[in-house]
Amino acid sequence: MEDFSLHPRLAAGSHPLGRLDRCRVLLKDHARFPWILIVPEVPTEIEDLHQLDPAQYLEVMALVRSVSEWMVGYFQPTKLNFACIGNQVRQMHLHLVARREDDPAWPGTVWAYGEKQPYEPQAIEKIITAFRTRFSVA
Q1: Which candidate, 14, 37, 28, 126, places its Cα nearest to that of 74?
Q2: How far apart are CA 131 and CA 137, in angstroms?
Q3: What phi and psi, each to the nearest 5 degrees, are found at residue 27?
Q4: Quick check: 100 and 94 in contact, CB under 8 A?
Q5: What number of other Cβ atoms are within 10 A of residue 3's Cβ?
Q6: What domains sit in the chain, N to C, each tagged with a CATH number?
Q7: More exposed terminus of the chain, fewer Cβ within 10 Å: N or C?
Q8: Do residues 29 and 121 make contact, with C-beta atoms less than 8 angstroms apart?
Q9: CA nearest to 130, candidates 90, 83, 84, 75
């Protein structure tokens, strides 16, 4: 989508991993919880999965599956959580959060857990490199 613009709040709180299948893939800057955002490049009036046309829905869900498989292999979580919540940022975006039994919020939710702990620059680069190697994005 040529005129797509990433919501400023999503851009400010994340690191770009790449663009795949008409979606932006971002690493949320919250080191306590490995957290990926998938942002389909759709018009602003499309906020929920059921509003996507059938072909794009399948494309987005295939990407969710691929990224989920990568996250499970890379982060080795106990559980991978998935959500499409847009209460604060209405732009459609999907959350994939790798949870571990030893994470500080387990078994509760991560949404409002404590203060965010940003990634160290070396950790960001390591994750970006691993992601871009797996998905062949620049």
Answers
A1: 126
A2: 8
A3: -100, 115
A4: no
A5: 6
A6: 8-100+115-135 (3.30.428.10)
A7: C
A8: no
A9: 75
